[in-house]
Design a protein that fits this description.
This protein has one helix and five strands, in the order βαββββ. With 75 residues, it is mainly beta. This is DUF2835 domain-containing protein.
Length: 75
């Protein structure tokens, strides 16, 4: 039962993040470093929101059913 991980680089301004929340958008769509498209719940980023929004590289983990299992900031 191993997790699968991808790395994404995110740059979401505070205004963009507020729009996601305000308009009840549920998912973030991003492209991984290896070119794959990924979608995961916006609330998974809540603990990473700062004055500059959400910035940095993240390791996103998925279980065998392709459900989000972890989000970890790398930098």
């Amino acid at each position: 039962m191993s997790n699968r991980f991808i790395i994404v680089d995110l740059s979401i301004s505070p205004e963009e993040y507020q729009k996601l929340y305000r308009f009840a958008i549920k998912d973030v769509h991003a492209r991984s470093r290896d070119g794959r498209s990924v979608r995961f719940p916006v609330n998974a980023l809540r603990r990473f929101v700062g004055h500059n929004g959400v910035q940095g590289s993240f390791r996103i983990g998925f279980d065998q059913d392709n459900r989000l299992s972890s989000v970890e900031r790398l930098d």
